[in-house]
Design a protein that fits this description.
Elements (H helix, E strand, L loop, with lengths): L14 E8 L5 E8 L4 H6 L8 E3 L36 E3 L1 E4 L8 E3 L6 E8 L8 E8 L1 H14 L2 E3 L2 E9 L21
Antiparallel strand pairs: 1-2, 1-3, 4-6, 5-8, 7-8, 7-10, 9-10
Length: 193
């Protein structure tokens, strides 16, 4: 993948990395990700010319080859390169409610944490008790988490999110996009009157 075209974001515990390799016919390939700082010397050595193989420790610093806020390889004295500050977009705001009886019932909003780049609206399976209720949760979520839950729901019909079985999930941007009526409801979901 071209390092300038990556659009997935992950939260790294230690350091971000960008590593360049070549495929069997010599075309360049890049791997974006997280690395332990102890692996950074190996990453830098994997490309002796230092082109597009580095570790860094600022937010989104490994998004392309033009940003090189690199972490120096470990020596007896470790020196960090200057930090490049990247202007961050304003924080996303989303509707936030837990266990609402209707998706339009929520009127509380929250500012999303760093890394939470989408709003979500989910329907929780209320179980098969005699009331057949469905509940709704709304809030902020990372895009990678959204893709994971959506994939699981597509494969098995439900996903477990924070100990709740969800059967429907939407993720969206911009701010406050997660307060709307879901078009399809299972017949077993009864409204609370």
């Amino acid at each position: 993948m071209d390092p300038n075209k990556c659009n997935h974001i992950a939260l790294c515990d230690s350091a971000c990395s960008l590593t360049q390799t070549r495929n069997l016919i010599g075309q360049p390939r890049w791997t974006h990700g997280c690395s332990e700082k102890s692996q950074c010397a190996t990453i830098a050595q994997s490309n002796p010319q230092g082109i597009c193989s580095f570790c860094c420790d600022t937010e989104l610093c490994n998004r392309n080859c033009t940003i090189k806020s690199t972490i120096a390889p470990p020596t007896t004295t470790t020196t960090m390169a200057p930090t490049i500050h990247i202007a961050q977009p304003p924080a996303l705001n989303c509707y936030y409610c837990e266990y609402s009886s209707h998706e339009k019932e929520c009127n509380h909003t929250t500012k999303c944490n760093p890394g939470e780049d989408q709003c979500y609206l989910s329907r929780i399976d209320g179980g098969s008790d005699k009331y057949n209720l469905c509940f709704y949760k709304m809030g902020c979520m990372a895009r990678t988490d959204c893709h994971h839950y959506l994939s699981t729901i597509r494969k098995s019909g439900t996903a477990v999110m924070a100990m709740d079985t969800i059967e429907y999930l939407e993720c969206c941007v911009p701010s406050n996009c997660n307060n709307h009526i879901i078009r399809t409801h299972p017949r077993r979901c009864k409204a609370i009157h």
